[in-house]
Design goal:
Number of helices of chain A: 15
CATH architecture of the largest domain in chain A: 3-Layer(aba) Sandwich
Strand order of the largest sheet of chain A: 4-10-9-8-7-5-6
Shape of chain B: globular
Number of strands of chain B: 4
Number of domains of chain A: 2
Number of domains of chain B: 1
CATH class of chain B: Alpha Beta
Distance between the termini of chain B: 29 Å
CATH architecture of chain B: Alpha-Beta Complex
Helix content of chain B: 40-55%
Radius of gyration of chain A: 22 Å
CATH topology of chain B: Sufe protein. Chain: A
Strand content of chain B: 15-25%
Shape of chain A: globular
Oligomer: heterodimer
Chain lengths: ~425, ~160
């Protein structure tokens, strides 16, 4: 990443959120005649003009299928797609051959479960997950278990929303063959100590998959420094288009993993007597991929780099501090997740008001929140609530929007007083 | 209609009251029909209990579960409306309620159910909130499943 290091930031201009907002056309619109206050970024983020324009320009000037034709546009399209892979690799500090494009983070995890899990795990082997996982990092392992007889072990979460690291270390044993944990909880906001998690697993010779769907948005991810084996990312939360995600996997793993899906583009040679497969990453990208979306994702990562990941993180942390303070001051409101290392995600419940009623009422004030179980039912079971409301902040949100959120939540209290 | 009017229409006093103090929220020992309903979208759960006599008249209606103000109020109001009705009348009320909150179809009720037709109007405001229709219909779908002996209902 070319983002400025924190020390040099003093000379850089202050983070100009008003200017940043002008980069996102949708933020200018109103809903129900009120300015849009978009705080559902944890579900999906809005798109800057740079992404929209890059995708449009690509389709207007350079589009063709990749890795197929010898004609001009096919070469051009292939070159831009490969460059997009390079941009993603630099974003994660990976090698380009270690980046597999998928549909989303969910597919990245399913790919590892089906390919790596199917080939290298055996009946009775254990996979360690945690109570704070998104369904995307639970169900693929259950499907694998149904298929080959692996078992899940679950790391508990403590009252503040931290992973119980002692329990984690104790769960690892001779039967453990994979650790699959979230890097950042989509409900609690907790940022898990990824490097330590990996270090502990590697002491037992166990590879680690991290679900980075949220973490990659809120701070730098360096897969080399983390020494993580697999890392899953989705494009649409990173201000890129939907339909594109990324699996990072160490080259040593990818080399020995069997294909995930079969089709064109993933083969070396096909005959009815037998087929040989392409090298990674193409081996895992059967069929025509999301070419336009991959290029859109690269544009999104370039945009993030232009603002600076450290500057974005600092801005989001100031929003988190202010939102925590404003919401905590509302009588009857409970914030779920108060870990010291936390991304700008605030889930809460309000005494006497169900999350869906909160969601409907604040919506009419223009405030978009996520309400429900956020695809993390086991965690909500643990929290003892059926549903929560969640405000998740992005690089374009403002202090004034936090005020609008707090005012609209107070109006919920008035209705249910 | 403004956003504030829509909200006032949805969260009327009657709804807030039934949401906060639901009627017939209990588990009758003599219930002979029950069904479990859930809304996979939000995780809301509810069980409806019916006590039918041998002339297929509903002698008791009750429910248990957790949900938002709309789904709780709807279950509470439903329990009051169905008390003493026959299963045929209950099905007619189900159809009328469904038509009311979705705005689809037209289910005219016979004269003897006019009071109930009036009472359910309090939930007509849900129509302005398409994402909340499932909250309002969960109890009714579950009741319908209990009558049919299906045991399970979902709003999906």
């Amino acid at each position: 990443m070319n983002a400025p290091a924190p020390e040099t930031k003093t000379n850089a201009p202050a983070y100009d959120v008003a200017r940043v907002r002008r980069d996102f056309p949708i933020l200018a619109r109103a809903v129900y005649g009120k300015p849009l206050v978009y705080l559902d970024n944890g579900a999906s983020a809005q798109k800057p003009r740079a992404v929209i324009e890059r995708m449009r320009e690509f389709m207007e000037r350079d589009y063709a299928n990749i890795h197929r034709g010898v004609h001009y546009l096919s070469q051009r399209s292939t070159q831009l797609y490969d460059e997009a892979r390079g941009t993603v690799a630099r974003f994660l500090n990976a090698g380009p051959r270690e980046i597999v494009f998928t549909r989303n983070a969910t597919e990245a995890i399913n790919l590892v479960a089906a390919s790596y899990g199917g080939a290298f795990l055996a009946p009775g082997d254990e996979i360690v997950v945690s109570e704070m996982e998104h369904h995307a990092n639970i169900v693929p392992w259950q499907l694998l278990g149904d298929r080959i007889g692996t078992r899940l072990r679950v790391v508990p979460v403590d009252g503040t929303g931290n992973l119980d690291l002692d329990a984690y270390a104790h769960l690892l044993g001779p039967k453990t063959k994979l650790v699959a944990l979230t890097h950042c909880s989509n409900v609690l906001g907790t940022v898990n100590p990824a490097a330590e998690i990996v270090r502990i697993a590697h002491r037992h010779g166990v590879p680690v998959l991290l679900d980075g769907a949220q973490a990659a948005v809120h701070g730098r991810v360096d897969v080399k420094a983390l020494d993580v084996d697999f890392y899953a990312v989705t494009g649409h939360k990173l201000y890129g288009p939907s339909g594109i995600g990324v699996l990072y996997a160490k080259a040593e793993h990818l080399k020995k993993m069997p294909p995930y899906q079969g089709g064109g583009d993933m083969i070396r040679n096909v005959s009815f007597a037998g087929t040989s497969y392409a090298d990674p990453p193409e081996r895992f990208e059967a069929g025509t991929p999301a070419i336009v979306e991959a290029i859109g994702l690269a544009a999104a990562l370039d945009y993030i780099a232009s603002l600076g990941q450290d500057a974005i993180a600092a801005h989001e942390q100031s929003l988190l501090r202010y939102a925590t303070e404003r919401l905590a001051a509302i009588p009857g409101l409970t914030i779920h997740g108060t870990a010291p290392e936390k991304a700008a995600i605030v889930s809460f419940s309000l005494e006497g008001a169900h999350a869906h009623d909160i969601g409907t009422i604040v919506d009419r004030a223009g405030v978009a929140l996520r309400t429900g179980h956020h695809c993390a039912q086991p965690l909500h079971e643990k929290l003892g609530v059926a549903a929560t409301a969640r405000a998740s902040f992005a690089l374009y949100n403002t202090i004034e929007e936090v005020d609008a959120l707090a005012a609209s939540v107070r109006s919920v209290r008035e209705i249910f007083a | 209609m403004s956003a504030a009017d829509d909200l006032r229409d949805l969260y009327q006093e009657v709804i807030l009251d039934h949401g906060k103090h639901p009627r017939n929220k209990r588990h009758p020992a003599d219930a002979n029909r029950e069904a479990h309903g859930h809304n996979p979208l939000c995780g809301d759960q509810l069980t409806v209990y019916l006590t039918l006599d041998d002339r297929r008249t509903i002698r008791d209606v009750a429910f248990e579960g957790r949900g938002c103000a709309i789904s709780t109020a709807s279950a509470s109001l439903m329990s009051e409306m169905l008390m003493g009705k026959t299963d045929t009348q209950a099905k007619a009320l189900f159809d009328a309620f469904h038509a009311l909150v979705t705005g689809e179809g037209d289910a005219t009720l016979p004269p003897e159910l006019e009071d109930e037709a009036d009472r359910m109007q309090v939930l007509a405001g849900v129509r302005q909130f398409p994402m909340r229709v499932k909250c309002a219909t969960l109890a009714w779908h579950t009741m319908n499943a209990a009558l049919a002996g299906a045991g399970e209902a979902t709003t999906e």
